[in-house]
Amino acid sequence: MRYAARVDANHGDIIEALRKAGWIVMDTHSLPGFVDAVAYHRGRDVLRLIEVKVAKGKATALQGLLRQEGWPVVTLRTRDEALAL
Questions:
Q1: What angle is formed at CA 29 by the lines to CA 71 and CA 54, rounded to 5 degrees?
Q2: pLDDT of residue 5
Q3: How many other CB atoms are found less than 10 A from the CB of residue 38?
Q4: Which domains does the chain have, with CATH numbers?
Q5: pTM of the predicted model as reported, rounded to 2 decimal places
Q6: Ranges assigned E (strand) in 1-85
């Protein structure tokens, strides 16, 4: 049985801010255990795996494993953090 992925309240705001800042964003929040989005900035040739969290949110085991293996996982909690990325 597959359960719906929980979406943090700030998810939409952060995705929108990334797109306004020039990032191409693939929203992946519905993939169980994976990060919330994959973002690429063409002008800077930068790829990031984005995890959206509210103030006290915790990473999943898979997200922790991705970080341990060196994947560029970034946790964003605010619109300002997204714009500064």
A1: 85
A2: 59
A3: 16
A4: 11-84 (3.40.1350.10)
A5: 0.82
A6: 24-27, 37-41, 46-52, 73-76
